[in-house]
Amino acid sequence: MKILIADDHAILRSGLRQILADRPDIEQIGEAATGKEVLQKMHEVSWDLVLLDLTMPEMSGIEVLKEIKLYWPDVKVLVLSMHSENQYAIRVLKAGAAGYMTKGCVVDDLLCAIDTVYNGEKYITMSVARKMAENFSLGSTLPPHERLSDREFQVFCMLVSGQRNSEIGRALNLSEKTVSTHRNRILEKMKINNFAELVYYAIEHGFVNRPTQLNSTLLKT
Q: Structural domain boundaries of the chain?
């Protein structure tokens, strides 16, 4: 098995490499720190599986995922993210990921997910399976945040986590004006009147973990 670790944090890449190095069935381990570097590495080696972070410089993980599935459809992609399943799991599975894990998972579960995905199966937790059943059941209505494009959803998550337009712009290589445009479209598509309501929505749907994150600074962003 040839595995590419795609994450912008060197310490995490090193930790994952050490975990995977103990597996005799893994022939090669590669690393990439940015979205563009991932795609460059894809041209260099015939990888079997990519462990993909969602938040990386230059390109988002979802953008990288779509490129991989377009040009290397046989490569398995297992998303390993800091974001909760509630935020991204269904979206990345729809985009072609074979599984979704959070960085808080235990090592044995991660290795199980790698084996499952490598063998051609989907790795889906029970909570994600329930959420998918809810979304795809007949007559169900998608929640407002599912109306957003992938880029708008990414900006939405960053906004409600407390990041300012300037910070989001630097992270995504966008101008502040473009971020502001995304923000306005998010409010419009979700039929929400103002940013305070958006944050309350995020708390209700689990995008903000603790109500203490709802402070005056965030609401004035």
A: 2-136, 144-219
Q: For residue 213, give Cα distances in angstroms to 117, 199, 203, 204.
A: 35, 9, 9, 13
The per-residue pLDDT string of the chain (221 residues; one tens digit each, 9 = 90 and over) reads 999 999 999 999 999 999 999 899 999 999 999 999 999 999 999 999 999 998 888 888 888 999 999 999 999 999 998 877 767 788 888 889 999 998 888 999 999 999 999 999 999 887 777 766 666 554 456 678 888 888 888 899 889 888 899 999 888 888 999 999 999 999 999 999 888 889 888 888 777 655 444 444 444 44
Q: What is the CA radius of gyration of the chain?
A: 18
Per CATH, is 144-219 categorized as 1.10.10.10? yes
pTM of the model: 0.72
CATH class of 2-136: alpha beta
